[in-house]
Amino acid sequence: MKLLSVLSPQALNSLAFSLLPLAFFLLSCHPVKSQISFNNQEEVIKKPLAKIQFDSSTYHFGELIQGQLLKKEIWFTNAGTVDLQIELITACECTTLDWTRLPIAPGARSKISITYNSKDKDGPQIVDVEVIANTEPASTYSKFKLNVKK
Are 149 and 66 in contact (CB under 8 A)? Predict the structure, then answer.
């Protein structure tokens, strides 16, 4: 209190006006409750998808004499939560592929029948098999290896 009595009325007015914005700020700022809460936010819902799980990522089919046909099957499981719909399966032009066009239920197994033509081939061969379906990502890969001898 002695400090205030020492100040002139002009200095006291100046001090009061200097402190006024600070007092206004401190007294007028009330904590505002957030309008956003975790309870009213939309949850990100993932779309249920099928999932191809091959018995092996790489199949080893041994040796083949040039000009022979190799017929094999590769098996997979639908490890997803909805029916698997295969749109297309591709490989090199020396490979013919066949598969079911029907939906494959979750947990069910199915196969891809492969016919590989070794005509004009020689040495180690690696063939990528791409399955395009209602999976994420849309393409799933497996491959097979073999050695073609003359």
Answer: yes
Q: Tokens 């066949």 appear where?
A: 98
CB 52 within 8 A of CB 137: no
Strand partners, 141: 130
What's the pLDDT tens digit per position in 45-89?
Answer: 678 899 999 999 999 999 999 999 999 999 999 999 999 999 999
Pairing relation of β-strands 95-99 and 86-90?
unpaired
Buried b (16+ CB within 10 A) or exposed e, 101-113: eeebeeeeebebe
Domains of the chain: 52-149 (2.60.40.10)
Estimate the share of the chain in helix, then strand, then coil, as percent rounded to the nearest 5.
15, 45, 40
CA atoms within 13 A on the CB side of 25: 5
- DSSP letter for each residue of 102-115: S-B-TT-EEEEEEE
